[in-house]
Design goal:
This protein has helices at residues 2-10, 15-25, 80-87, 108-123, 141-151, 154-158, 184-190, 226-238, 252-257, 269-279; strands spanning 31-38, 46-51, 60-66, 92-96, 129-139, 166-172, 212-217, 242-247. The protein is α/β, with parallel strands linked by helices and 285 residues long. It has a single domain, classed as Alpha/Beta hydrolase fold, catalytic domain (Rossmann fold), CATH 3.40.50. The chain has an 8-stranded mixed beta sheet, with helices on both faces. Helix 1 runs antiparallel to helix 2 and helix 2 crosses helix 3. The longest helix is centred in the middle third of the chain and has 16 residues, at 108-123. It is globular and about 50 Å long. The model is unreliable at 1-13 (pLDDT under 50). Keywords: Hydrolase. It holds the Pfam family BD-FAE. InterPro entries: AB_hydrolase_fold, BD-FAE-like_dom, GDXG_lipolytic_enzyme.
Amino acid sequence: MLSAMSTMVLGGCSPAGLLNGASRLVGDSARLAGSGIPFGDDPRLKLDVWAPNRAPAEPLPVVVFFYGGGWAMGDRAEYGFAGRALAARGFVCVIPDYRLVPNVRFPAFVEDGARAMKWVADNIAGYGGDPSRVAVSGHSAGSYIAAMLALDPHFLRDAGADPKLIRAAALLSGPYDFYPFTENRGRDALANWPRPQETQPITFARKDAPPMLLMHGTADTVVQPRNSRALAAALTKAGAVAETRFYEGKSHIDTIKSLSPLFRGSTPALDDMIAFLARYDQAGA
């Protein structure tokens, strides 16, 4: 095991790729039910589907997971560890790619997420998933995309999907209230938009928003924990269901790496996610 991990590090594997490679060797058992499935015309618009090893007796709840990377990097193939973790617990998990900065700017990556959700609504039944029980999840910039899809209904509507498709959201270390843009990632991805408040998930907090779980490490210096506090407060004030989990002393990376079997004890994020989704008709095993 250690020699395999050393080979990946020496070969220049990214941190997410390292977690993914290791998870193939130890831990969660699931199958890649579909790989590189196109959901749009751009070469980037492909997705993977993870499912439990055993065919279900009835359709399973679905989680669409959006990875992070500052809207500028990332690849679905490196996040199989997240798909395996969720599939091993009774979900069908979809991991889409999306177009990246600098080739695109806001709102293109959110629109790509909406196209992926439309594909899920139309096709996930063929992979054992229940299109009436769809949740979203993600990490960092991926949590941003998931939050925008859950809160601003025009994205799903414009993609031809029902804005009520998303039943719940369980989000890791996401930026939801970060204008004015004070660092390059936000400026590069979003500062082009002439109405900056429309780029902020907190702007769209509303009473009928899907139930949301916002998870964050208190030592996160990449995306400040105040983002989760602020969005949860806005949702609660509006009358929506919002819960938070703050992991003492944990960093931006700790939350996502705890989905990998190698670091499962780093935070209880996976268990918190599963328990939350189970309460909103997304029951996992």
